[in-house]
Amino acid sequence: MRILGPALAPGALVFAAVALAGPAMAQTKWNLPSAYPADNLHSENLAQFAKDVEAASGGKLAITLHPNASLFKAPEIKRAVQTGQAQAGEVLISLHENEDPIFGIDVVPFLATSFDASKKLWAASRPAVEKKLATQGLKVLYAMPWPPQGLFSKTAVEKIEDLKGAKWRAYNAGTSRIGEAVGAQAVTVQQAELAQALATGTVTALITSSATGTDVKIWESIPYFYDIQAWLPKNVVFVNQAAFDALDKSTQEAVLKAAAAAEERGWALSETKTKAYMDQLAAKGMKLAPPSPALKAGFEKIGVTLTDAWLAKAGADGKAVIDAYKK
């Protein structure tokens, strides 16, 4: 017995150490679906966010990014996170304007047309967006803008009337309304299907960012780009509140710290890449130009009409956000 006792002791100690280490080393895994290609600027920022979370949490939380609508299509992502089919997600928040007007505030035409203005608008609207998403069991992590939205067209456009009858790509309620306002035929196409829609002629005109244009190689189908800088839409990254609450305190802090860094990095990244995207469009032979005075005036007139329509839907809460933004 005196021989066996010491021989067993190390094994027992190892077993005990493994048993104690098990819970501490347990890894929580989150799936995070996105609608954009892996090399898109938003996906790049998400990938860095996931790395930062894993590092800051000491490996306790691993986030797997599913880009290019590979797990859920763009309109399905928010619902998937609400119902726990995915723990976190990224969406173009204006896709859900029909649920609440506050989700569409950043695509009100010509309300915020620069990065500084867009950041100010996000600061004014974030509390309202967070409040609404909280009622749906979602917690906002961060937001990141797209480059300013420009007009792409198969044919030259000197005035609003030149868009009449065009096959107009819409991706949310706001772009559908603009299509109607210019007399175009609106067709809903999300980014994952946009390249095919352009190639087949399903879409001949659209307002989107230079980043999206680059993603889908828009120069293969569309020769004209007008830098109207209509708005800067945002993607919002959020998490299922129950999934967040299930994390220990230190891991929650790691997520929030990484999210804050991703938001700051994302705004800078979008602004930095805007010029590179524009340069690439030009290098591919596209005809880039500012809008003519007539085209600019036409869009601004539409902007006033659609702003009034948005305010009528959004009511006092929407007006309060606009007032805060304009201070």
Can you lay out the helices and strands and say which pair or pack?
Elements: H1 4-25, E1 28-33, H2 41-56, E2 61-66, H3 74-82, E3 88-92, H4 115-134, E4 138-145, E5 149-153, E6 167-170, H5 173-181, E7 185-188, H6 191-199, E8 205-209, H7 210-215, E9 224-226, E10 234-240, H8 241-245, H9 249-283, E11 287-289, H10 293-326
Parallel strand pairs: 1-2, 6-7, 6-8, 9-11
Antiparallel strand pairs: 3-10, 4-10, 5-8, 5-9
Task: Give your account of this protein's structure.
There is one protein chain. The chain has helices at 4-25, 41-56, 74-82, 115-134, 173-181, 191-199, 210-215, 241-245, 249-283, 293-326; strands at 28-33, 61-66, 88-92, 138-145, 149-153, 167-170, 185-188, 205-209, 224-226, 234-240, 287-289. With 327 residues, it is an alpha/beta fold. The chain has a single domain (28-326), classed as Bacterial extracellular solute-binding protein, family 7 (D-Maltodextrin-Binding Protein, domain 2). It has a 6-stranded mixed beta sheet with strand order 7-6-8-5-9-11, sandwiched between helices. Strand 6, helix 5 (173-181) and strand 7 form a beta-alpha-beta unit. Helix 4 (115-134) crosses helix 10. The protein starts with a helix and ends with a helix. The model is unreliable at 1-24 (pLDDT under 50).
